[in-house]
Amino acid sequence: MNSQEVKNAIEKLEYDGIYIPEYIDLDYISENEDIQSIEDLIDEIAQYIQGAELIYFSTAMKFLAEEDASLTNSLELANDMGYSLENLNSETLATILLQNKLWTELHDIL
């Protein structure tokens, strides 16, 4: 895979993505990481997705209100991951939902 194909993939993520361009610094990844293939790019973005989190109550609540007002999806994802209600708060639910949306978008686009 040549560098032009990697650049094209990054551009596709920037233009077709909703969550990835907002929450992952693709410019930083393309400038500072040794990416030789699409697989390298996916691996690098995967690391950023695993580290993505929504902190602060107001930020988490705003994201949840906009993306999952009923909390159905985020609670289902949390349950699938083994969380119990005692271990959940708005930041955890928002982070779980954000990471899921990032993974889904990455796989849909690339």
Summarize the structure.
Helices cover 72% and strands 0% of the residues. The chain has 7 helices and no strands. The chain has helices at 3-16, 20-23, 26-32, 38-51, 57-67, 72-80, 90-109.
Number of DSSP helical runs: 7
Q: Please, what is the oligomeric state?
A: single chain
Radius of gyration: 15 Å
Give a quick account of the main beta sheet: strands, pairing sense, barrel closure: none
**Structural class, judged by helices and strands?**
mainly alpha
Q: What is the topology?
A:
Layout: H1 3-16, H2 20-23, H3 26-32, H4 38-51, H5 57-67, H6 72-80, H7 90-109
Helix pairs in contact: 4-7, 5-7, 6-7
Structure characterization notes:
By secondary structure, the protein is an all-alpha fold. Helices cover 72% and strands 0% of the residues. It has 7 helices and no strands. It has helices at 3-16, 20-23, 26-32, 38-51, 57-67, 72-80, 90-109. α4 (38-51) runs antiparallel to α7 and α6 crosses α7 (90-109). The longest helix is centred in the last third of the chain and has 20 residues, at 90-109. The protein starts with a helix and ends with a helix.
